[in-house]
Amino acid sequence: MFRKFSLLAAAFTLVVAASESSRASQAAPATRHYLVKKVTGPINIDGKLEEADWAACEPIRLVGYNEGVSVKQQTMARMLWDDGYLYISWHCEDSQIWSTLTVRDDTLYQQEVVEVFINPDGDREAYLELEVNPLGTLWDGFVLKRDSGLIGILAWNSFGLRRGVNLEGTVNDPSDKDKSWSVELAVPLDELVTAPNVPPKSGDKWRLNLYRIDLPQRNKELADYSAWSPVSGGSYHDPDRFGEIEFSSESVRY
Questions:
Q1: Are 88 and 116 in contact (CB under 8 A)?
Q2: What is the DSSP letter of 172?
Q3: Dist. CA 187–CA 164, nearest whole Å
């Protein structure tokens, strides 16, 4: 199984195998860099990505989760910001869109989903994890890296996060061929308590990674696991391999 989780609902914690954490801490970083530019106007969080700012934004192509691993259906992501939010979008090619989970903080990572892990202070010790599936269901929590492994704080919820999903196809209908699904997030900067500056200053750098899980025909044997910055082992929880984003005061359009 790609991600090894033990859910402890009573304690609102999520524990990841310590051996995976140990491997991650020993891995040399394979950092990607992305310049996040400022929006020029309002972003409507509906998942449609119709704003001119998104069209002008430099795309990020997600690749296989490990170096040399390929994926069959492409995913393009983009990022923008203003003084209130970090905006993130994914556009996911998908010939069979499916998802069944509708409850917040359910095990979205066992089905089709996009994810972002955000480490504002770059310490690789504490980071925010956000996930959204094609039904618009959200998983949000904080992850702490400890010597014994990784501890996820499921009790943490974002109160200001906005999300939107747009489907070019039909969910859970295997009789037709779908085209894609897209996700738009507006992550409130004032909830990122480990950020050195809120709002960020031009030139501030954060660690971050973007992911997607694609399960064609609901079959994990056919699964594609994508990442912006490939990880070193079999888990997305590899903060040493997070990419780097840099905030710029430059507008994405003139």
A1: yes
A2: T
A3: 12
Q: For the chain, which residues make up each domain, given as ranges? A: 5-251
| Tokens, residue 135 | 């039904």
The Cα angle at residue 59 between residues 201 and 126, in degrees rounded to 5: 50
Token digits of residue 140: 């949000």
Interval 62-78: pLDDT, tens: 999 998 889 999 999 99
Give the angle subtended at the CA of 20 by the CAs of 17 and 21, to the nearest 5°: 90
Whether 242 and 145 have beta carbons less than 8 Å apart is answered as: no
Distance of CA 16 to the CA centre of its chain: 18
Contact 131, 121 (CB under 8 A): no
Closest CA to 164 of 179, 183, 181: 183
**pLDDT tens string 183-213:** 999 999 999 999 999 999 999 999 999 999 9
Contact 234, 5 (CB under 8 A): no
- Identify the architecture of domain 5-251 in CATH: Sandwich (2.60)
230 within 8 A of 243, measured Cβ to Cβ = no
